Amino acid sequence: MTATPIFNFSAGPAVLPREVLQQAASEMLDWHGSGMSVMEMSHRGPEFISIYKQAVADLRELLNVPPNYKILFQQGGGLGQNAIVPLNLAGRRAQPATIDFVHTGSWSGKSLKEAARYANVNVAASAKDNGFTAVPPQASWKLTQDAAYLHICTNETIDGVEYNFVPEVSADVPIVADMSSHILSRVIDVSRYGVIFAGAQKNIGPAGLTLVIVREDLLEHALPICPSAFHWKTVAEHESMYNTPPTYAIYIAGLVFDWLKRQGGVAAMEQRNIEKARLLYEALDADDFYQNRVAKEYRSRMNVPFYLRDESLNEQFLAGAKARGLLQLKGHKSVGGMRASIYNAMPIEGVQALVDYLNEFAGR
Ligand SMILES: *Cc1c(COP(=O)(O)O)cnc(C)c1O
């Protein structure tokens, strides 16, 4: 064991609650007296079915998921859903359908590029011209009357831009939200969305699991070419076991859901996340030694990109951080600079340690 605590600011795969890792370690060889590791269990056996059912029930409770929504556990990640979503929803309209996108950063950009293989893409608004530093105001969006759906990325992990509103759309155009990097970090009204998806490796659990929450009436519109294993209706009818689901990742996600409940649920996490983000942005804004370029009202509570005014100090900054146990602060290669991801599992002590280091490095 090291004397200095380690704080991991990775954007994903990312920090997990210590208690969850400890519990998983203690159950690794023998889950609840079954004589088996969860990794060794049949996904159709009573042991794993109980793990699966508990995870779904806990997630439903945490996010207050209405009864007319299915919770699916898939594989393929967020990028997989960029194809899986249009394959499942483009059939809502005569072909070729049109899909509306709001381009707020790297991830929504990837999503609209992939969707263009299956449908017409309308970029209703783009923040590209301002360097992805804000969500374009909804009044400026040029939405399509009969779009198959509207796709938004509610937290841009690389650009550090987070929605602070739910778009108003016509009742017949469902909103599809990529919530990969902030799901479970704040209270949401699931009923305002048609589909919510999230790769698990940011705020849920290990890589390899993708969560999809989909309104039941949206299960009926897949294109004929949609692969069976990615057909939401088929997956829903088989309780996410049409093919073998990522069983161990579901188990860890279940432990995280249980941990979240013990923390007081999503509303309590949100309060802590507000406080953590406030502390960190305050240190970055103290003078012009550091810089975060995102408009204040759209700054992400989960992913905080920042630059040193003097970028020649970058390597020194990272080396000093590492020496203090502050890990993985290097920014995404596409934008450079630094990034601190402060997901649910990052304790406030970790943010405080980073703030202390920011102040020290700036010579305050
Ligand atoms: C990480 C991320 C993805 C991509 O997830 P993969 O699992 O790597 O496919 C998609 N969208 C957002 C918002 C992300 O943060």
TrEMBL record:
Gene Ontology terms, MF aspect: O-phospho-L-serine:2-oxoglutarate aminotransferase activity
Signal peptide: none
Cofactor binding notes: Binds 1 pyridoxal phosphate per subunit.
EC number: 2.6.1.52
Residues bearing PTM N6-(pyridoxal phosphate)lysine: 202
Reported cofactor(s): pyridoxal 5'-phosphate
Keywords: Amino-acid biosynthesis, Aminotransferase, Cytoplasm, Pyridoxal phosphate, Pyridoxine biosynthesis, Serine biosynthesis, Transferase
One of the Pfam families matching this protein, by short name: Aminotran_5
Catalytic reaction equation(s): O-phospho-L-serine + 2-oxoglutarate = 3-phosphooxypyruvate + L-glutamate; 4-(phosphooxy)-L-threonine + 2-oxoglutarate = (R)-3-hydroxy-2-oxo-4-phosphooxybutanoate + L-glutamate
Domain Aminotransferase class V: 6-354
Record flagged with keyword Plastid: no
Pathway: Amino-acid biosynthesis; L-serine biosynthesis; L-serine from 3-phospho-D-glycerate: step 2/3; Cofactor biosynthesis; pyridoxine 5'-phosphate biosynthesis; pyridoxine 5'-phosphate from D-erythrose 4-phosphate: step 3/5
Binding site for pyridoxal 5'-phosphate: 107, 157, 178, 201, 243-244
Highest taxon of source: Bacteria
Binding site for L-glutamate: 44
UniProt subcellular location: Cytoplasm
Enzyme class: transferase
Assembly and binders: Homodimer.
Protein family according to the UniProt entry: Belongs to the class-V pyridoxal-phosphate-dependent aminotransferase family. SerC subfamily.
Role according to the record: Catalyzes the reversible conversion of 3-phosphohydroxypyruvate to phosphoserine and of 3-hydroxy-2-oxo-4-phosphonooxybutanoate to phosphohydroxythreonine.
Protein name listed in UniProt: Phosphoserine aminotransferase
Native source organism of the sequence: Massilia solisilvae
Gene: serC
